[in-house]
## 1
Amino acid sequence: MVEKSFEVIREFNLTIFLIPFLPFAASIITLTLGRLYWRDKAHYLPVLAVFLSFILGFKTLFDVLGGKIYEFDIYTWILSSHLKVGLGFLVDPLSIMMVCMVCSLSFLIHVYSIGYMHGDPGYYRFFSYIALFTFSMLMLVLSNNLVQLFLGWEAVGLCSYFLIGFWYEKKSAADAAKKAFIVNRVGDFGFALGIYMVFYFLGTLYYHEMFPKLHLIAHKYIHIGGWEIHVPFLISFLLFCGAMGKSAQVPLHVWLPDAMEGPTPVSALIHAATMVTAGVFMVSRLHSLFEMSEAAMAMVAFVGAFTCFMAATIAPTQFDIKRVIAFSTLSQLGYMFMACGVGAFAVGMFHLFTHAYFKALLFLGAGSVIHALHHAPDPNDIRIMGGLRKYMPITFWTFLIASLSISGVPGFAGFFSKDEILSHAFFSEYPWGKIIWFIGWFVAALTAFYTFRIVFKAFCGEFRGREVLHGEVPHESPKVMTIPLIIIAFGAIFSGWLGIPESLGGGAHFMKFLESVVGEPKVVHEASHGLEYFLMLLSVLAGLTGIGLAWLVYVKKPELETAFSSRFRRIYTFLFRKWYFDELYYYTIVRPTLWIAEFVVKLILDTFVIENTVNGSAYSVDTVGSGLRKFHNGIVNYYNVFILLGVIIYFIVFYLR
Amino acid sequence: MVGLGHYIALSLILFIIGMFGFIFRRNLIVMLVCIEVMLNGLIIMFAAISHYTKDISGYIVVFFIIAMAAAEAAIGLSLVVLIYKKLRKKVYSDEITFFKG
């Protein structure tokens, strides 16, 4: 199973320590000094720190490739009887792969932000937060225990809150930030309970102590309200609640589309490439726990599949370019969970890896377009775009590469990872594998369709935004933005080449590297190459059909564009309103909560408790004061009498005691 | 033979006269005089007890009180003169109500 044995090194390693803590230091220093002293130079330190982290991460990658695993604690955080929680690092193939991905993208997006955020009054704040985010994400992936994972998990959520609400003077941004934070709390509640359950049943929170003990709970059941619940399922379910929140799976997905209120680099880094994939990372990290319960695997697979399908049906109806890409992110995250749900964790991580590059590229391309159109009242609206290919060639070509990659056109990164997911689903030994395959295959066509809808609407045809821009034409973004785009475009093509499957003559090196940590996929039988080629052909055909359909609808016959929406009014509205999830939550959760809050706060707390306390104290002081004032009449003789009385009372008390 | 009891009785009588005068008289100058009377009562008490117990500290307190009484009379009388000038020829304590709360 494990091809080469790893050497575990348990000593403190400064290199690994510096990977997360350099961005942290940069963030704190930028936050304290940036406003007064650096202003538009605030990006120097974070960019440098993240670049150094990237170099150190890359160096560590070679150590891990050379057969080393690092595992050490730097600080004991909580120590209470059996409970021991440390701040520590675990560097194995899984975490170092995440570190390299996070650092490389974070660095490029930092550079891109120099151009995108130029002249913003919160420039220093932006760089401080985004460096803090990099630190939190690195702490999350490098942790060697569940509590530190949770710490990083919450910290990335906090940074996400800061950055979604970055333009906090805009009400929609502030609301979206609150929504993201609150929806994540729901998931994190489950996650915290799951961690508690792990400690309760296994007595430890460290990965390396936890996994050997897992067989102890394999046949354990717990009674909850008359139900007998399989313990591994219960723990997996609770932990998966956290993953549903952070990775935006149904039913906790509602925050991600709204999170697009934040600056576009944030959407690229946090809400596409790194933070939202933390759930997939966590499930892969704890794969042996999830694999112990078939029900848990089915839950992961079907939640992923449903999200994948739902998001892909909503995306073609949206007009906000970032929202379309956000729904595409939901859908791709669904793919990753589908891969996890059929036991192919390494393939899920592979898709996470390639998706990070092409999705970040899509967002940054969209950001470049928005930057060019920022004089328009709503620069995100694809209806005012069109023909941008002429004005912004670099953005167009890089966006096209990302679109081809996500659509699964052979040779691009997305093709290899998506195809691996589909073939692993098809050949999985889990009974739901075929269904998952079918959903994944169908969504592949939808993905290609809605992605190329943006390409054709935004970049082809005639520019439609002349009126709103008052005759101005958009122009290409500055070099500081286009060069990161070009570099990430290489990632969007070549990141997939690390894991070319064996049937195509590759070595699947990426998956083999990870399988030492996340286990090998369970396949029924060695798949015949013929069938595998056939499946591959089917998925390529699905992608090409999607592209062709988009071309037909948005280029060849634009009159078809409204045909669907006018003929199937009901379905269209249903999709356009995002399956009414927001409305559902509004009427079942938000409204009742507000009613209760209004009742409790306004009628009970406010009127009876607070009002009476405040007014009562004022009234009593007033009454006592005006009573005492009568004695204070200014006539000395009265005071003398009081002194005499006081002396008399004193002597009476003193002697008669 | 005049004994300690007589001195104490005299001092208490003086003190009580002063006290009641201080409380019930309205004329500020009379009130000041009453304070002096009370102080004199105290001085007699201190001197008498000091004499009978052969303890010198009582005499020292007496000298302190005399010095203090002189100062007090000076300040008190000057205040009375000021009040007399400022408050339109009034030196009766029940008419002076500017300390009223």
Note: The CA atoms of residues 15 and 38 of chain B lie 4 Å apart.
## 2
Amino acid sequence: MTKDTPATKFQPPVQLDIVIPIYGRLDFLEHCLYNLPKAAKDIVFRVCALDNASPEVGADKIVMKAFPNAYFRRSRENLGFPKGCNVAMRMGHAPLVLFLNTDCFLEKNSIQIMVEDMIIDPQVGAVGPKLLFPEGSPNGTAEKIQHAGLDTNINGEIIHTFIGWSADNERVMKQAEPLALTGACLMTRRRLFVEAKGFLEDYGMGTYEDVDYCLTLRASDYKIIYEPRAIGYHYVGASAIENKMQFPLNQNYQLFRLRWNNRIPWTEWSRQ
Amino acid sequence: MAKILYISDMDITGSGYMNISIPLCLGLVEKGHEIIVLGLAYKNSEHHFPFKLVAMKTFIEVGAAVHNLRLLWKPDLIIAALDIPWHDLILRQVIRDQPAIPYFGIFPVEGDPLCMDWAMILMQMTKQYAISQFGTDECQKQGVMAEHFQVGIDTVAWRPPTPEERKALRDAAGFEEEDRIVLTVADNQERKALGIAFQSIAEARKTIPHLKYALVTRENNTQGFKLRSLASRDDIAIHDILYIFERGMEFKKLWSMYAIADAFFLPSKAEGLGMPLLEAMAVGLPCVATNCSGMSELLSDGRGYLIKPEFVYPDVFGNANRYMIAPWRAAECLELVLNAKHPQMVQDALDYVQARSWQIPVDMIDKAIKDTIK
């Protein structure tokens, strides 16, 4: 629900829960929340935020000030990204769920466009926007592609297709069905997410849970859609950099390969 | 319309194969063909080509990709532009997969004679295309019925500078009017004979005042010369005479290098063709090169100075003869080129490159595709 809706009037049902796991970088959180109303346009949404035991306090005030009807919970310990998302998702009830990192800033109409993709085609299991590097990101050049879907190279390694390319390159501008999407900004259906038992919590602090989830959807013949008309900026790893966190990349990659070995298609070639 | 699986070296920092493959693929797409390029050494950098370009790190990956794409995409034929031993690696994979698929190979023959082992690799191809007349002739001597793939050049992009452009570029680069700039564009590898180039420049500077030497190369190739050490040995003071530029520069900068130069020098011991010679000719530079293999046909008939090799020896890497020039002889040629104007030679060279349109090889390959898959 947008924050300007008067509480006394008829309240349309919430269409979308925006699930935001928080770990530090409250400045980014503010920016992320600030962009949501314009990004959602006519979509009725509710913020479901989980403070994953941030070193800083005050996330609750920021969230509740921006969206008084938000659901907020603070965990005593850092549950990691997958479990944190699962817990926060369970706070809401909307049929659609958008997982959104605090260092991801969505542009005007982006959420509305993604919701439309989900509504138009019931076989769409997940939608993700075009994400660009913002000014000041240590991970890439500003305004260049950070995420345009994830694919596999001939070795079965997960790659960020078109990373570093111009945002208006004709290949990047095409809606596509990549292998997977980043969990930094991923919209899906609550029903499918619950059926899949959420993000696999065995991935601990996180990485690969998003790809794993998308492969689960694909295995049930749901489409994974990269939507270039929806645009956002993704700083990448803001909380991890600030708090010197390390993700179990190798361990999670091994787990991912164990789970999906022999079932990972080569997808890079079809998108190039 | 055919579905073409194209394989080549697509290293954007400097690859002769890429300079051949891109115009050819663009021409074939224009003819209506659909192309997926498996690009060795391509690192997913941004492009706008109207064909798919997939990064490949190794030939093992190429083999796997060929196998997968034959199942997933079902190409009508394979075109590969590679050195002959690399064709062997691809052909082994292609032959293993049934049914057989037509395979067109584009390749250089750098030296003579074509060894029988390599001729046997070429014989497994549906069509063989050598990138020089020299290579075509050498193939035919060994019973390989190769055709000449006449590499084109875009003479709109590679054009002579106007006098004003040339002066402005030289001023910007800090060269004086009296400076005589010799340019070499060549990788830092054994075959390119950069050691001989340095010796030749050292010799030439004894008689040519204000001689400068600009070299576009790969300075830090682990298997190449330590160029600055080599320059010290030959007494070419680094900042006085020698200017080394790293290859992979954008087109405009590379063209500017040709545009400011007074002569082009390629002392290679062997060349499959010598693409930089074509570029230099198109920019209106008088050229000096070793009289051997692919270089001879480019500069013959008065289109440039061909240096008579001093001796010939068989080489393990090339599996063929290598031709060594003497530095004093190269210095003599450079002196001839730099101390006089050569309008007829330059004009003949320009006329020659202008006749080398990309349309010729594109039409030839297009016809061969249609004949093969009909």
Note: The domain at 16-271 of chain A is CATH 3.90.550.10 (Spore Coat Polysaccharide Biosynthesis Protein SpsA; Chain A).
